[in-house]
C-alpha cells in the first residue's frame, strides 16, 4: 500500500522527527502517508508535502522565500552558491512583482535557517554550488511552484 523505497522511508521518519507538535503527530503521519497521486511519484508527492511544511515554518514574515530559493536552484544549470541564492532572494524581495511578497523585510537569519533546513535535500560541488540531491525533490519543486519559462526568465540575469 505504501512505497517501500528507502528514500521515502528516510524522508518520512525525518519529517516525523522534526515535527514539533506531539499531540498532532498521528495526524501529521497520516497526511505524510497520503501520497497516492496519479500525476506524481509517491516520493515526489512526499517531498511536496515537506515543502509545504517548510513554507509553514519559515514564511511568516517573508512569504514566497521558499519558492524563490527552491525555484532558483531548480532552474540553475550548474547550481548556485549560497551567496548567489541570497542575492537572488534579496533581489526578488525588492522587485515589484517579485516572488517574495512586496514589502517583506529580508531577514538574513531567516534565510540562513531556511537554507540550513533545505540542505537536507541539497548537494554541493567543489565550488560550493548547490543542486538538489535527487530528481524526486526537483520534480516536487517544479510541481509545487509551477516552475515554467516565465520563472526561468525572472531569474535570467542571476541564475547560471
What would your notes on this structure say?
The protein has 160 residues and is mostly helical. The protein is built from 8 helices and 2 strands, in the order H-H-H-H-H-H-E-E-H-H. The protein has helices spanning 6-18, 25-33, 42-58, 65-75, 82-94, 108-118, 135-144, 149-154; strands spanning 122-124, 130-132. The protein has a two-stranded antiparallel ribbon. The longest helix has 17 residues, at 42-58. It is globular and about 45 Å long.
Key traits:
56% helix; 160 residues; mainly alpha; 8 helices; two-stranded antiparallel sheet
Q: Give a short account of the largest sheet.
A: 2 strands, antiparallel
Order of helices and strands: HHHHHHEEHH
Range of strand content: under 5%
Tell me, briefly, the overall form: globular
- Structural Rg: 16 Å
Strand order of the largest sheet: 1-2
Low-confidence stretches: none
* Oligomeric organization of the protein chains: single chain
Average pLDDT rating: 87
| N/C terminus separation | 41 Å
Q: Give me the number of helical elements.
A: 8
Structural class: mainly alpha
**Helix residue percentage:** 55-70%
Strand count: 2
Amino acid at each position: 500500500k505504501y512505497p517501500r523505497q528507502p528514500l521515502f522511508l528516510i524522508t518520512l521518519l525525518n519529517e516525523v522527527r522534526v515535527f514539533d507538535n506531539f499531540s498532532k503527530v498521528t495526524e501529521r503521519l497520516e497526511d505524510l502517508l497520503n501520497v497516492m497521486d496519479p500525476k506524481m511519484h509517491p516520493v515526489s508527492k512526499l517531498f511536496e508535502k515537506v515543502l509545504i511544511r517548510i513554507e509553514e515554518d519559515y514564511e511568516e514574515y517573508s512569504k514566497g522565500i521558499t519558492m524563490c530559493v527552491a525555484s532558483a536552484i531548480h532552474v540553475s544549470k550548474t547550481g548556485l552558491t549560497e551567496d548567489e541564492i541570497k542575492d537572488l532572494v534579496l533581489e526578488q524581495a525588492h522587485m515589484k512583482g517579485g516572488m517574495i511578497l512586496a514589502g517583506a523585510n529580508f531577514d538574513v537569519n531567516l534565510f540562513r535557517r531556511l537554507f540550513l533546513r533545505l540542505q537536507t535535500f541539497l548537494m554541493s560541488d567543489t565550488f560550493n554550488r548547490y543542486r538538489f540531491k535527487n530528481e524526486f525533490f526537483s520534480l516536487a519543486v517544479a510541481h509545487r511552484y509551477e516552475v515554467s519559462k516565465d520563472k526561468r526568465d525572472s531569474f535570467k540575469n542571476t541564475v547560471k
